[in-house]
User: Fold this.
Amino acid sequence: MARSAEPKEPAPGRAPAPPHGRTPSVKDVAASAGVSLGTVSNVLNKPAAVSAATRERVERAMAELGFVRNESARQLRAGTSRTLAYVMLDGGNPFFHDVARGIESGAEDADLSLFICNSDGRAAREAKHLDRLVQQRVQGILITPVDPSASHLREIGRRGIPLVMVDRLGGTGDCCSVAVDDVLGGRIAIEHLTDRGHERVAFVGGPESIGQVRERLLGARQVWSELGRDAADLIHLPTEALTVAEGRGAGERLAGLPARRRPTAVFCANDLLALGLLQQATAIGMRVPEDLAIVGYDDIEFAAAAAVPLTSVRQPREELGRTAARLVLAEAGDPAHRHEQACFVPELVARASTAAVRHPARKR
Amino acid sequence: MARSAEPKEPAPGRAPAPPHGRTPSVKDVAASAGVSLGTVSNVLNKPAAVSAATRERVERAMAELGFVRNESARQLRAGTSRTLAYVMLDGGNPFFHDVARGIESGAEDADLSLFICNSDGRAAREAKHLDRLVQQRVQGILITPVDPSASHLREIGRRGIPLVMVDRLGGTGDCCSVAVDDVLGGRIAIEHLTDRGHERVAFVGGPESIGQVRERLLGARQVWSELGRDAADLIHLPTEALTVAEGRGAGERLAGLPARRRPTAVFCANDLLALGLLQQATAIGMRVPEDLAIVGYDDIEFAAAAAVPLTSVRQPREELGRTAARLVLAEAGDPAHRHEQACFVPELVARASTAAVRHPARKR
DNA sequence: GATCCTATCTGAAACATTTCAACGCCCCGC
DNA sequence: GCGGGGCGTTGAAATGTTTCAGATAGGATC
Assistant:
């Protein structure tokens, strides 16, 4: 019954089979190398304090036994883990994955692992994730919250766990945050469209409970009124969510408008909406950009990959993530840390979906 | 200097400020409730063994102190963590996120957390992630490996950590795996195209070092020869990777073919390629499906959202993930576990990109 | 009243690591 | 020969939890 080594397979790697059942600990290594366990610990943590000969002996023992540090024990002693966590809002939106990638790169630099969670827009899930993360004693939490003012967020802060809001403004300033200037994003989108000669534009997006949506719309309206345009010519087509399906729905409603009122361009609150809208528009035979120009938001990879490449407002996603990681680490390192609100500037990426065309209405 | 409670903010939540610096432990709770720490532990782990009165007292103490279990300590004692991990191959491909969602749902059922890592197709990154996961003593590892035969994978197995390959066949059977029948997938894609009357078809995909690519191509060729078609009419357009950019490149090469040799349909090894190809085809004025029919693979959300909705071979992604989670848990629970190779059946989802059109070549 | 049982609670041990005061040792300078 | 100071090493303490053998008490049964 004893688990014998398979004779067929003569140790393919370097590490031999584990000594016996249990995975070896520092104690085993110490015994095998004939040193105290404090010395083994020193080899791991301050190798300079150990003589070369001893160090080598210990290292050989570790290799022979296939020793691997037990991170739980280390954490227990240290009081905190070597892990950051990012709780993202919508796992179906590539935007957040790009942000996550930025965070990961920041975490990597500090030699930390990154725990990625997905709240899927549901407060209960978010709370559950946060609960777990607190139990894990993560070193810091990055989050794009369902509701930035939720009580479970303040709870985290009260516990003294560094927390950074990502892509949301920290509001009252009781935590760090990184965000992009959404009002400005709305402005440049509309400026781009008016530059292209559009006089009747729709803003597609909702619900307005989402700060981003509110601000992008606000920016749009600001420019519109500054240009002295009639507010009635900037239509708001609300959606229930920022998804492809909702974008299609908005496309249908757009098509249903009487020709007089129908806009020649739309500005969508994100790229998913824009892609859905583009699809619907194409399906009913509208040409983009000739009949309808479209501007999206986020500049996700699929925006550039659309059949008609999508003009979009790009956010510096990875940098957003990297900065967030930097802030959370700064807060973790320095107790006297002042909360910081980083705000990035969005940038318009013009593509075919708003290419300059002599507009039919003007041409004739 | 003492950190006094802010007078402005009269305890917004229920939990009062932590007692003093340190986060409270079971010992603190025990002291505060006037019981032994064993009892506190029982309240947490086997509440039935504690009298109602005591339990309530302890629970009140926990609430008052804002006690949160320390997961590291729990893990240390238990010898293993309450965490699964998924190392995905390509964070930029929504397919893997859907798989991850399935895994998460499986993990959720077992009340485990899921650690999501991204190897980004790089073996070194993958090895680093695995290293960390072993240090964390995760309960099991799910992985879509860069190279299924890599030595660091066998290492994991030798350590006795349950490992399940996702979307890859376990090959020699020395670990569990879940996969989808890619040969069959290739077959149904080609059958669909030949049903639609196409007589010259291209397979776009590569590199062939990827098992999926090889098998989908194999399935395609099988059907082709079974139908008695000339092998020269099933062109293989190789790509360097399964990305949108490579899809665009393939589109260019396709357009460059002399009209006689140009296929009327393509079967792409995944949806990213198909989307890139669709974009390029549209850009140069080819109509889809009239001039070129396209079949993708994976049926990611963006396939349905494309301007011309993409016909695609759907894999049961979430189920793949859920099954993988189930297998890894089975292996973790039962040491005498027999490795299992789960194989799912793909399914064709027909959309506009291969809609039946009277094909020009036949019409005239 | 002794015995047994059950329900409840206790205290110490164990888990793997890091830290730290202390120790032995050797060499240097006096 | 002795004090002093590095250097390298040691052993014990501490971290927060779970587990488990025992302790205690309160009934019920004989």
Residues 25-27, 37-38, 41-42, 44-45, 69-78 of chain B lie near DNA strand D (CB under 10 Å from a C1').
